[in-house]
UniProtKB/TrEMBL annotation:
Pfam families per UniProt: rve, rve_2
Cross-referenced InterPro entries: Integrase_cat-core, RNaseH-like_sf, RNaseH_sf, Transpos_IS3, Transposase_IS3/IS150/IS904
Gene3D superfamilies reported in the protein's UniProt record: Ribonuclease H-like superfamily/Ribonuclease H
SUPFAM superfamilies assigned to the protein according to its UniProt record, in alphabetical order: Ribonuclease H-like (SSF53098)
Transmembrane segments: none
Record's signal peptide: none
Domain Integrase catalytic: 1-141
Taxonomic lineage of the native organism: Bacteria, Bacillati, Bacillota, Clostridia, Eubacteriales
Name under which the protein is recorded: Integrase catalytic domain-containing protein
Highest taxon, organism lineage: Bacteria
Length: 144
């Protein structure tokens, strides 16, 4: 399983985690990665699907402690989470459907490389004026 944290503004994948089962701890691990990387200010809106792991007491408490507002998709409505769904469509079309993987470790390594070396740094996005997420994100960094 691969939960992600994606910036709707920059389309950058800022957090993710791997496991053979999806549970609250896995989604908390992805959130923790995003928090360490991006250090968001209170008031951020975190949108997710309506999975039980995102509705859990522990997850909701972590968001509240960080000053993050939670927003969840309506059940059965993939358009509420379209940006994340688009990422997974790209991941499948540009990586997963193109090769066979010998092991879970190889799959995770290749997904890591896809996100960190390709998706965030080389893959242009039409929603960003054909810039790559990392370059687009630089527009929001303080001058300095």
């Amino acid at each position: 399983m691969l939960p992600i944290c994606l910036s709707v503004c920059t389309r950058k994948i800022v957090g993710y985690a791997f496991s053979d089962r999806i549970d609250t701890q896995l989604t908390l691990d992805a959130l923790d990665t995003a928090i360490r990387r991006e250090q968001p200010r209170p008031g951020l809106i975190f949108h997710s699907d309506g999975g039980v792991q995102y509705a859990s007491h522990d997850y909701r408490n972590r968001l509240e402690a960080l000053g993050i507002r939670q927003s969840m998709s309506n059940k059965g409505d993939p358009y509420d989470n379209a940006v994340a769904e688009n990422f997974f469509s790209c991941l499948k079309a540009e990586l997963l459907h193109l090769r066979r993987f010998a092991s879970r470790v190889q799959t995770q390594d290749d997904i890591f490389e896809y996100i960190e070396a390709f998706y965030n740094h080389l893959r242009p996005h039409s929603a960003l004026g054909w810039l790559v997420p990392e370059r687009f994100a630089c527009r929001f960094e303080p001058a300095g």
